[in-house]
C-alpha cells in the first residue's frame, strides 16, 4: 500500500486555537489555587463576563456560591486525578435575573512526569426548559 503525501501543512497550534475558539462549549484551565489561567470566548459568554475579568480569579470570586459548587470537583481532580463527569450546576450568575443550568466536566491535566499540574473544565450551557418548550394552545 502506497502512502500519499500530504502537501498542505497545517499549523497544529493555529488549528487547536481555532478549535478552542470555535467550540460551542465553554473550556477553561485552572491552576493549583483554582484560579482561571485560560478560557475560551464561549465560556466567557456563558458566564456573561469578559475573558480578561476571569484570569487570576477563582470561580467563587467570580460567581459566589454558584462558583463554589464546582470547587469540590476541581479539588478532587487535583488531589486524586479523578475526573468529575456530568456535574449539573444551577443558579443565578451575578448581574443576571434568571437561573441558569450547566453541565460541567472537570479533569486533571498532567505534566510529562504524571503530576497533576492543572485542572480543565468543559462547560455546556443547558437551555431553559420553559423557553425551549413550544406554547401549548387550547
Query: Can you count the beta strands?
Result: 5
Q: How much of the sequence is in beta strands?
A: 25-35%
* Radius of gyration from the alpha-carbon trace, in angstroms: 18 Å
CATH superfamily: PAS domain
Query: Mind summarizing the main beta sheet?
Result: 5 strands, antiparallel
The string of secondary-structure elements, in order, is HEEHHHHHEEEH
Instruction: List low-pLDDT spans.
Output: 130-138
CATH architecture: 2-Layer Sandwich
**Overall number of domains:** 1
Number of DSSP helices? 7
Large-scale geometry: globular
Q: Quote the distance from N terminus to C terminus.
A: 66 Å
Lateral strand order in the biggest sheet: 2-1-5-4-3
Label the structural class. Answer: alpha+beta
Determine the CATH topology.
Beta-Lactamase
Helix content: 25-40%
Q: Under the CATH scheme, which class?
A: Alpha Beta
Amino acid at each position: 500500500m502506497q502512502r500519499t503525501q500530504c502537501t498542505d501543512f497545517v499549523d497544529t497550534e493555529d488549528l487547536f486555537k481555532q478549535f478552542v475558539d470555535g467550540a460551542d462549549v465553554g473550556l477553561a484551565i485552572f491552576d493549583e489555587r483554582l484560579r482561571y489561567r485560560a478560557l475560551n470566548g464561549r465560556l466567557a459568554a456563558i458566564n456573561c463576563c469578559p475573558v480578561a475579568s476571569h484570569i487570576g480569579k477563582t470561580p467563587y470570586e467570580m460567581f459566589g456560591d454558584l462558583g463554589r459548587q464546582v470547587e469540590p470537583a476541581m479539588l478532587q481532580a487535583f488531589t486524586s486525578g479523578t475526573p468529575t463527569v456530568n456535574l449539573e450546576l444551577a443558579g443565578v450568575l451575578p448581574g443576571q435575573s434568571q437561573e441558569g443550568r450547566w453541565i460541567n466536566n472537570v479533569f486533571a491535566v498532567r505534566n510529562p512526569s504524571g503530576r497533576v499540574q492543572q485542572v480543565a473544565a468543559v462547560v455546556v450551557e443547558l437551555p431553559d426548559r420553559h423557553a425551549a418548550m413550544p406554547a401549548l394552545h387550547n
